[in-house]
TrEMBL record:
Subcellular location, record wording: Cytoplasm
EC number: 2.6.1.52
Residues the record lists as N6-(pyridoxal phosphate)lysine modifications: K190
GO cellular component: cytoplasm
Pfam families for the chain: Aminotran_5
Family named by the database record: Belongs to the class-V pyridoxal-phosphate-dependent aminotransferase family. SerC subfamily.
Protein name in the entry: Phosphoserine aminotransferase
Purpose of the protein: Catalyzes the reversible conversion of 3-phosphohydroxypyruvate to phosphoserine and of 3-hydroxy-2-oxo-4-phosphonooxybutanoate to phosphohydroxythreonine.
Keyword annotations: Amino-acid biosynthesis, Aminotransferase, Cytoplasm, Pyridoxal phosphate, Pyridoxine biosynthesis, Serine biosynthesis, Transferase
Length: 356
């Protein structure tokens, strides 16, 4: 039976990306060695990093003066590296979920943190609006897509300060005005690659402004200077990222990804709103994520939770159980999710409704 992968992360990747990675793991560029065996300093590997960096810059229209890094440690390590490198006295944070809350916790170790707005009062099911950002902060930290709760900012905010953004789960899903950001980062396992690599885009001249000493490995300048090769980088996940970036490019770039994302989201939210059994957990339409679509059973049908999960599983749906903080269901629709996959889930919801 065909499986439809709705996992939130690690997530679905295009089949050809997996196949091409598999080929290189068996024999890298006809060298007779596996991609998993070669040195990151092998002459054939440098072009992999170079092309991946160039593709990120090309696809997101990254202006001059920015560096692109591939690091280890996940987005979670960035929560600490960001304030280490950018927070001199005071920073502003938007608290829009668990990940943002974790980022705030780390930032507090380095200076004053102003929480400019929070959606915690309604379990993070909306994106705060009409908040004031103080102009004397070093940056405003934003989480553009809240993977657990299914809220998303669909365009870059207009604020009077520089921004830093955790784009773990909507990176490469829409065009971004990179010039508004001093840093954009995320764990690759949501929409870029397999687990094990973290992408970071940094405005070079935003660095070097904090007065503290920074440990070598946690100092972005170390990695910029060495082109992500200060120590051994995660070679295989970087290769997969390259294959996926090539795939995004040949499929029309981020504009095409954004169009597809909207098409998938309209299809699924349309069914959630129509179907008598279900309701979306995010009520404000413009806040609804195109990447992580969260829904629950209406109260009068709440006892059908397990039955729907079993039914959907029997139809090939994978990974639609909601996060424990939200309950219900979550269908993650990253770049490689097909409209056909979403249609299969919609059919499943319709069929289940007819049975009840
Ligand atoms: C998954 C996720 C993280 C954590 O990523 P790791 O790479 O596992 O540290 C951080 N932020 C967001 C928005 C996420 O979805």
């Amino acid at each position: 039976m065909k499986k439809y992968n709705f996992n939130a992360g690690p997530c679905i990747l295009p089949r050809e990306v997996i196949e091409n990675t598999a080929k290189q793991i068996l024999d890298f560029n006809g060298s007779g060695l596996s991609l998993a065996e070669i040195s990151h300093r092998a002459k054939d590997f440098q072009p992999v990093v170079d092309e991946a960096v160039a593709l990120i810059k090309e696809l997101l229209n990254v202006p001059e003066g920015y560096s692109v890094l591939f690091l280890g440690g996940g987005a979670s390590l960035e929560f600490c590296m960001i304030p280490y490198n950018f927070l001199n006295k005071k920073a502003a944070y938007l608290r829009t979920g668990v990940w943002a809350t974790k980022a705030i916790k780390e930032a507090k170790l380095f200076g004053e943190v102003v929480e400019v707005a929070s959606s915690a009062d309604k379990n993070f099911t909306y994106f705060p609006k009409n908040f004031e950002v103080p102009t004397d902060v070093d940056y405003l930290h934003v989480t553009s897509n809240n993977t657990i709760y299914g809220t998303e900012l669909h365009k870059d905010l207009d604020v009077p300060v520089r921004m830093i953004c955790d784009m773990s789960s909507d990176f490469m899903s829409r065009p971004v005005d990179v010039s508004k950001y001093d840093c954009i980062y995320g764990g690759a396992q949501k929409n870029l690659s397999m687990a094990g690599v973290t992408f970071v885009i940094i405005k070079d001249d935003a660095l070097g402004k904090v007065s503290r000493d920074i440990p070598t490995m946690l100092d972005y300048r170390t990695h910029i200077k060495k082109g992500s090769m200060f120590n051994t980088p995660p070679v295989v996940p970087i290769y997969t990222a390259l294959e996926n970036l090539r795939w995004v490019k040949t499929h029309g770039g981020v504009e095409a990804m954004a169009k597809l994302a909207k098409q998938r989201a309209d299809l699924l939210y349309g069914e959630i709103d129509r179907n008598k059994l279900f309701r979306g957990t995010v009520q404000v339409e413009e806040d609804r994520s195109y990447m992580n679509i969260c829904f629950v059973l209406n109260d009068e049908y709440a006892e059908l939770q397990q039955e729907f999960l079993d039914f959907a599983t029997s139809k090939g749906m994978v990974g639609i159980k909601g996060h424990r903080d939200v309950g219900g269901f979550r269908a993650s629709c990253y770049n490689a999710q097909t409209v056909e996959g979403v249609q299969a889930l919609v059919d499943c919801m319709k069929e289940f409704e007819a049975k009840h």
